[in-house]
Queue: 2 jobs
Job 1
Amino acid sequence: MSHAEPTPAAESAPGEQSSAAEEIIPDPGHVFEAHGQSEADFSAKPILTVDNLKMYFPVKSAGIIRRTIGHVQAVDGVSFEVRKGDSLGLVGESGCGKSTTGRLITRLYKPTAGSIAFEGTDISGYGSRQLLPLRRDIQMIFQDPATSLNPRHTVGSIIGAPLRIHQVVPSDKVLPRVQELLEVVGLNPEHYNRYPHEFSGGQRQRIGIARALTLQPKLLVADEPVSALDVSIQAQVINLLQDLQNEFGIAFLFIAHDLAVVRHFCPEVAVMYLGKIVEIADRDTIYGAPHHPYTQALLSAVPDVRQASIGGRRERIRLEGDVPSPINPPSGCRFRTRCPIARDICARVEPPLMQVGKRHKVACHFAGELGQHPATPVTTGVLGVDDEGHDVAGAQRRSDLLDHPGYQDTWLDLKTGQPVGS
Amino acid sequence: MTLQTSQLESLEPTPVESDESSTKAVAGLSPSRLALRRFRRDRLSMVAFVVVASYVVLALLAPILVKIGFIDPFKFHQNLLDANLGGIPKGKFGGVSGSHLLGVEPGTGRDVLARMWYGVTFSLTIALAATLVSSVLGVVLGIIAGFRGGLIDATIGRVIDLTLSFPQTLMLLALSTVFVLAIQNALNVNVNLANGIYEVLVLGLFGWPTVARLIRGQVLSIREREFIDAAVLLGASQRRIYFKEILPNLWAPILVSFTLTMPAYVSTEAALSFLNVGIKPPTPTLGNILDGSINYAQSDFLFFFFPALLIAIIVVSFNLLGDGIRDALDPKSDR
Ligand SMILES: Nc1ncnc2c1ncn2[C@@H]1O[C@H](COP(=O)(O)OP(=O)(O)OP(=O)(O)O)[C@@H](O)[C@H]1O
Ligand code: SF4
Ligand SMILES: [Mg+2]
């Protein structure tokens, strides 16, 4: 962020109502624990099912006749589920396609391929007229509060706009409703007449949240909602989101670029790399026993309060090199150019996202806990290839174990190499 | 005479820093009110504004004053000229006297103040009309190009390139007689008005590309901002997005481009007079007065000096005003 986030005192100066929940916790290590962890309910019905979603942006040549000379494979076949009132974290480095995924689900983009089922209906091909009623159910919180609010509109008209567009309430009821929403997000309801520039970054993000809440959505896509904010203010905003989720039962797709932010918010986390999900699991597995080298590297960068307090510290895994271009991704496993344990098979065969636990899927030929990666590929039986990645005559792909949204009742046990059931 | 696009590029309304947000006023200050406040605090811009406002008022008054005979830019005063010196005014300082405050014109004896005063009216009218033509064309085409993109955008871009690479001065010179005659016949107007219309049309038709480029760039940058996506997600119609979300953010660059185009055309009018294009005497414009005075730069220096000074004042004050408006609208832009 270019402009300095105000000090805590300034933050609460013009527009903030102070309440106990707003207290600033100075220790950044504890910051996200303020409201406790939300727990997963894996039995709840999915509100959103994304299956093999792809978004390829054409790359045009320069000059008068602009031919398409390639495609940015921003999102390349992701599948996941978000259950009612639950929240899924989507984590990955800059440019891995998180925002694009969010924008596909909110249908700001039309996917190149794949399906987006919202409450059982595929909305991936909907036109703008069909989408209109859906807009009420799926909303988005944007990353940068400085550009997500129109500087020429008052806060009242920003938050009131959805009410007017959808004619949810008669026009004389818009203002009371706006004030109510301002109060819900912890802003002074008398400030409806002010302009965005009169608020601090954290307050502007609250305005954006209020706008997203106006239509009482069932699913909120939060695209790095706190990345642009100061650490102390991040905690307040996350706590606000958590309170809102508990109160209104909104399902969240929570996008973040590191694992620390989503830890206490999301009972389930998906890790993305270069347009693909490389690992998805419940919180305990992702943070306690991640099996993908990339997740392990990401996790090593997260400051761990507990370990720090007992004097131990995880070794920081440094990834070599840059993220390859999504226009021309590496063959086989996309992570192989930076993977510390890559072998020949990784360049030859793409590792499928394979269920290896009750709530755990991973896409790696050598999936295993840190330091315990197996010596031979675990994927050969499922893919029907040998250890070097060459096809084995007569072998079959076990597609029942591969790449479905959600979790199956049977999965591959990594120790035995055999399918097991719950 | 071309507008500096670089001056205008960073013209997005930016969030204002804490000095404004810490004020205790309960009612919100809109970005335009804030800009106005910033403008008022800027001394130089206020001076420029007062100067601009005063000659605009004088220009508006001139036709009335001419009509009631308070000033007379057309009456000859041969008796004030020295026939032995080739029609140079008698007396010191180009014939300055109580009844001719800035002296009289060599050769004709017309009152210099009256001619300059009335000349401002014509010069500003031409500049304003040309600015309107180029701004309307530029804004409309710029918005269309920016909104629509694709083939329409590419086509408009091509036309802009073509127009900018066109040797307009040459065309002005070569074709002026033909076109002026055509305008005269088509609209059934006198030669002077036809000259004026021709000048305005040419300035406007060659001036719009700069404005269009600027506005197109602004539209593209506004379209990229997340509040547009937010509006789409809230179910706003295309119409609503254009008129309620984008257009309010375009007024600032339009206004600044307008105030910076005006002075460019005032000086262009003067330059064109040297090339014998535009309104001709006896109807005074600052350009044709200066053109007529240049021969006397040595023998009657003040007669040359006054119109040159006035043009300079007009151009500089308009530019300062434009800069002031830009700074007030966008406090973060640095020069
Ligand atoms: N409209 C677009 N046209 C072309 N390429 C795009 C477009 N949007 C995104 N991309 C490309 O797609 C890839 C993924 O972008 P995306 O914005 O989804 O990443 P991200 O994970 O959200 O990154 P960040 O953390 O920086 O926000 C990037 O390489 C980006 O350059
Ligand atoms: S598949 Fe190979 S390259 Fe990819 S993460 Fe696993 S070990 Fe590394
Ligand atoms: Mg992003």
Job 2
Amino acid sequence: MPTNILMPALSPTMTEGNLAKWLKAEGDAVEAGDVIAEIETDKATMEVEAVDEGTLGKILISEGTEGVKVNEVIAVLLEDGETANDVIPTEAAASSAVEESQTAKDPSTSLGVAGEAEQPAGAHVEDRDILYHQGVIIEPPPFDEASFTDMYEATVREALRDAMAEEMRKDERVYLMGEEVAEYQGAYKCSQGMLEEFGAERVIDTPITEHGFAGIAVGSAMNGLKPIVEFMTWNFGMQAIDHIINSAAKTLYMAGGQLGCPIVFRGPNGAASRVGAQHSQCYASWYAHVPGLKVVSPWSAADAKGLMKAAIRDPNPVVFLENEMLYGEKYDNVPSSEDFVIPIGRAKIERSGADVTIVAFSIMVGKALKAAEELAEQGIDAEVINLRTIRPLDRHTILESIKKTNRIVVAEEGWPFAGIGAEIAALIGEHAFDYLDAPLARVCSKDVPLPYAANLEAMALPQAEHIVEAAKKVCYK
Amino acid sequence: MRERIVASAKKKTSKNIKGKAADSKSVSNSNPEPGIEVLKKYYRDMLLIRRFEEKAGQLYGMGLIGGFCHLYIGQEAVVTGITAAQDNTKDTVVTSYRDHAHMLACDMDPKGIMAELTGREGGYSRGKGGSMHMFSKEKRFFGGHGIVGAGTAIGAGLGFAHKYTKDGGVAVAYMGDGASNQGQVAECYNMAALWDLPVLFVIENNQYGMGTSVKRSSAGTLYRRGEGYGIPGEQIDGMDVFEVEVAARQALDYIRSGNGPYILEVLTYRYRGHSMSDPAKYRTKEEVASFKEERDPITAVKDMLQEKGVEEAALKEIDKEIKQIVKEAAEFAQESPEPDRKELWTDILVSEEA
Ligand SMILES: Cc1ncc(C[n+]2csc(CCOP(=O)(O)OP(=O)(O)O)c2C)c(N)n1
Ligand SMILES: [Mg+2]
């Protein structure tokens, strides 16, 4: 039986890549371990090794082909006595899990509606921060997003990089620090090209000492600099949580306003794919709990760019929660203006609807939009709110939406207990109780450490279908 | 590969500063004797700390100061000697919760410090920080940190900013013997050495972290903890203010010349409990008495002044002046009103919107 050689995945989140080069030709004998081809993604390059011995019978994907799906057959290995004629072309053996995540992440599902939904006008409010901390419902800051019409195409990863680079060009005090950010160009390639542009004094590789370098960054911020600290993932940021909360968030208050800490802590948050419990956790509610911090979590590339610029310019410590699964998502609607700075504290209505409000942030926005389409087919018109900022939460936009739809589902990847959904439930209980036609529903990760096994992992994470179910439930359908 | 010159003092073995006053005098021998004016300044600065702390202790006893209150009595020579060696136009300072003396040494106003201890509007943080959390941007004092070990990383970060902006400053980061065992301290030694950060790490080894003696908490020798990173270290007698200043001056010169960080382990002793509520059962009365009677840093300077012929009356004059300053600080701290109720909501974030 001829053996199929499949397009390998370089990482759990890779769905496709380019076949850069064949190092063996049809008819060549290969030993197990021989390098037969090179493949690449926007993040990395890898050699493909033969796992068996035999003869390279047929090359099915030619050199230079882009966008080859993971698990697609790229060549066929023949045993002794077999000929290329024995080869029966097989369909790509992509697993259903991969297919599902691809559709879930396809941004085109949302692009059509994104620009259409009407956004709240917002208002300039005196003493906004004070009122916010007092729990007063205030309109979000105004922002005319529709006025940015000059767009370019970028992935979320590139958008983050562009935002950092633009701000670093503008302000000498801004620097980037973290593990693998400089020479390696970022563990997830979010700082591609930055070392080359800004040099080793401003793009700094650190040792693997999160607690220490977070403290150093905080000290440097107190002494006049504006650091961007990358945590390889937020799971490792736990080592530094003391400095984020005790040193960065509280100093301004404890210093009676004399001394602040303008700093951005950023990195991927939440579950990636099949990396197990220690590498898969959403920290949104952890940091959103803390007065003195701002917490931001982008979904699209435009979110990533506009919010990162806002975070860097903000004179306060900002926790910036990205998502590894979204880094490679490409969008054609990233505003190119240097002034595209999304105000922190302002949500975006991604889709307007009349029947039920779905509140989501980060990766759950894509799933919410997918759910909304499915709901539309079933006759339910859902409104999808992309929070963008977790703290200060745009309570106003959420409440206005509920007053219209009278039903709400909150979707988040974190655990349910004391999560963002719980907070929004409290908000609604306090301010919109009389508007509700059904109790709020939460769609969260199951209340378990994230399991590794593919089937269990899929069960544990919140999916579009769970949002659909929840929305139908609150609509009594 | 970079070769570092490691200060020769590093090879000294651990000193025993207990009791024997003779010890300390011998160290200063190689350095020119301080003149009367220098000694008077030491005397004045150390006395201010002592009297201030005694007053804080009293106010605490009267219920005017709440929470934790960590006094520096006995350790005065450390911060006095080191500050005397600093470039006080640009160097930055950070320490732990035992911070009143560091602020006084940084020339912060005793009234503002005492009023912060009493939690009043006139305090450096308008009553929102307290004894352990006070700052002065103007005097380049960066706290005041309640988390053991945190100040060391922040200090390395202050140094990072000095290097980044090339402003010529050095960060002086104080920590306790207990703090020196924190993981982030080791992390920061590594990064400070790796990046040649201008940081003077000062370990105030007062021989106890709360109730745990150094012997029970710390392996090896604290000033040598930087050795593997190539950071020179030195152990000095912290009951001898002149020795402290001389060592700090050398260390700061070394750092300011671009050589990277330096560790000074300063052997000292706190006379009072860890905080006001500490019964100090973990050490003997005799041990405390031996330091007070034989090694007191203020008495030592006073003796030197008298040996040089300074009249008792001249010293009394200084005592009086200090007493007055502390009295006024205490009065201010009691008269200053509690912070306005609207202070509760301010300074959580730097607000940009008008
Ligand atoms: C991370 C942390 N752990 C524990 C404490 C409680 N604590 C406060 S002071 C202290 C002892 C520190 O001793 P040392 O560093 O020698 O300083 P000293 O009090 O002697 O000046 C401890 C354990 C704390 N504040 N922070
Ligand atoms: Mg101690």
